[in-house]
Design goal:
The protein is of the alpha+beta class and about 150 residues long. The protein has 3 helices and 5 strands, in the order H-H-E-E-H-E-E-E. About 5% of the residues have low confidence.
């Protein structure tokens, strides 16, 4: 009986470690090349300048990311066994509608995010053209950013 309990404990401990520990703490050190900003890198927007900034983005068809991604991959930082998932075309369309809709964001104070999930947006040559980090409270941080994302 003690051997069964000991083996069960070891299996549970290994499962917990494999699925919950981040062995690569620099997993989000991505640089989005300035060329993907397409000469539009907005300053931090304030509530007073928000309406005019969003109007400018809408009139100039500025979206996130600046070009339509060929594929998007969702990464889960909490599970080392299956930590990535490639989105379908329908899921890509839905995600892009959400991140480009200003009503998806609300004003708030920025803190230090504890990121559990992130999306990598890739072009047809597999170049990184955008990234969205999502912390455990649901806040999203995207690059290249837009004013409508309400920093």
């Amino acid at each position: 009986m003690k051997l069964v309990l000991f083996c069960s404990f070891i299996i549970l401990a290994i499962t917990f470690i494999i699925t919950k520990v981040n062995f690569n703490p620099n997993y989000l050190d991505f640089d989005i090349d300035e060329r993907f900003y397409k000469n539009y890198n907005p300053e931090t927007v304030l509530p007073e300048t928000y309406i005019s900034a969003v109007r400018y983005e809408n009139e100039n068809n500025l979206t996130f990311p600046r070009t339509i991604p060929y594929k998007i991959i969702l990464y889960n930082n909490c599970n080392l066994i299956q930590n990535s998932y490639e989105l379908t075309n329908e899921e890509i369309s839905t995600l892009l509608k959400i991140v480009n809709d200003s009503s998806s964001y609300r004003w708030g104070e920025l803190g230090t995010p504890e990121v559990h999930y992130y999306f990598k947006y890739l072009d047809e040559r597999n170049n990184l053209i955008g990234i969205t980090k999502i912390d455990q409270e649901g806040m999203a941080y995207s690059k290249p950013h837009l004013s409508k994302m309400k920093w």
